[in-house]
Design a protein that fits this description.
The chain has ten helices and 18 strands. By secondary structure, the chain is an alpha/beta fold.
Length: about 425
């Protein structure tokens, strides 16, 4: 009997989805607009918490569609509210809008020429992770849904989020600040959807994973204190650079010898070391900055505990001292299993059964996870791999590039997810 009712539920769900599909003609004119918006954002990128012009363009577009628009949410975030023909649930669609301190290296006619100062260093600014495409896709979905609001049995909240890459030191930002300022309230959000374009996924393909799909991210800073001396007489001081090397080596044993990797991937990476001023001086101190990535909550706690124990102990063993500070950046990006199963027919309906693929978890991180801690959420990956590119450049690199022919699918799936969720 239980199986019978499950069959009926799936049958009626399928019938409802079929009845509320957006006709293809509704998307005929949107692709060119989306590509134009994307190129504009790409050519004029702005760093986290500094997305002032980006926010103005988004707000102007949402206002032109007749939406209620809120600006300055989470510093530079923009929120649009679209009410359907009837009262009902509230679904949120989210896009991140910030760029990275990366100098672009290609010959695109719309390449970024923007330069800025970032943490004391002159650098280019580039949409090296695809947030320009996310923004343009959600603007396209906003236009399509505003033209089809008679199909909405509820409300859609469009969240354009700043600072996904993390706010500047000493500032708040990103999803956490938007939540703090009430972005999921008034009207209260029942579920949220988000996507990330991927340069390694073929155009036309959608990849997803129920439950943990992206890693929790911590940022750590280790300060090592030694004793300065002449480089020719290391025995007369304490070398913080050697201690740093031993700490780095020791940290990797936490992963290779103490973490149960069969439960999920884990990574400890030191990404920056600063120490010394001259070739023949052993400096007084060294600083290391890095990241921890985990997909299992218990493993995360183990790694953090062992790092706190190991870092000062190694320094002491070599005659120095060391402190470690660990800051939580994102939680595990957790796709609610029931919501994922509920919306899987929508993904397959829009992209095609053979183009929707189950994937393994990744050690990348996403502050979309903070939204998912508050309401059920589904986060998936959209194909953007350049054609004829067997080895596409990774995200966060100067050569990163996205094939724009994949953007229309993003508009279609985000639009249909909103309609189908509200109409089920």
């Amino acid at each position: 009997m239980k199986k019978y009712f499950l069959f009926l539920n799936l049958l009626f769900t399928g019938m409802a989805l079929a009845q509320t599909s957006i006709p293809e003609k509704e998307f005929e004119n949107i692709e060119d607009e989306v590509i134009e918006w994307r190129r504009d954002f790409h050519q004029n990128p702005e760093l986290s918490n500094r997305e002032f012009e980006t926010a103005k363009k988004i707000a102007a577009h949402l206002e032109s569609l007749g939406m209620e628009v809120k600006t300055g949410v989470g510093k530079t975030g923009v929120v649009g509210i679209l009410k359907g023909k009837e009262n009902g649930k509230v679904v949120a669609l989210r896009a991140d809008i910030d760029a990275l301190p990366v100098t672009e290296r290609n010959e695109l006619p719309f390449r970024s020429e923007v330069e800025t100062e970032f943490l004391g260093t002159t650098t280019g600014v580039m949409h090296a992770c695809g947030h320009d495409t996310h923004t343009a896709i959600l603007m396209g979905a906003a236009e399509v849904l505003s033209q089809n609001k008679d199909k909405l049995n509820g409300t859609v909240k469009f969240i354009f989020q700043p600072a996904e890459e993390g706010p500047p030191p000493g500032e708040e930002g990103g999803a956490a600040l938007m939540i703090k300022e009430g972005v999921l309230k008034n009207p209260d959000v029942d579920a949220i959807f988000g996507l990330h374009i991927n340069s390694g996924t073929p155009v036309g393909t959608i990849r997803y994973k129920p439950e943990g799909t992206m890693a929790a991210v911590e940022r750590f800073v280790i300060n090592v204190q030694g004793e300065q001396t002449h480089g020719s007489a290391p025995w007369s001081g304490v070398d913080p650079i050697v201690i740093s090397a031993k700490i780095i080596d020791g940290l990797q044993t936490i992963i290779s010898r103490e973490s149960k990797l069969t439960d999920g991937a884990a990574v400890i990476t030191v990404g920056k070391i600063t120490s010394g001023v001259r070739f023949n001086i052993i400096p007084e101190s060294a600083e290391m900055i890095g990241t921890i990535r985990t997909l299992d909550p218990q493993m995360k706690e183990l790694i953090i505990t062992r790092m706190r124990e190991m870092v000062p102990a190694i320094a002491e063993a070599y005659g120095g001292t060391a402190t470690i500070e660990i800051q939580n950046n994102t939680a595990i990006t957790y796709n609610d299993p029931e919501l994922t199963q509920q919306m899987l027919p929508t993904l397959k309906k829009v992209a095609g059964n053979e183009k929707v693929e189950l994937q393994k978890a990744t050690t990348g991180g996403e502050d979309f996870s903070f939204f998912q801690e508050e309401v059920p959420g589904l986060y998936f990956f959209l194909g953007g791999q350049p054609l004829n590119s067997a080895d596409p450049a990774p995200h966060h690199t100067p050569d990163f590039y996205i094939d724009e022919s994949g953007l229309l699918l993003g508009v279609k799936v985000m639009s249909q997810l909103a309609i189908d969720y509200l109409n089920q």
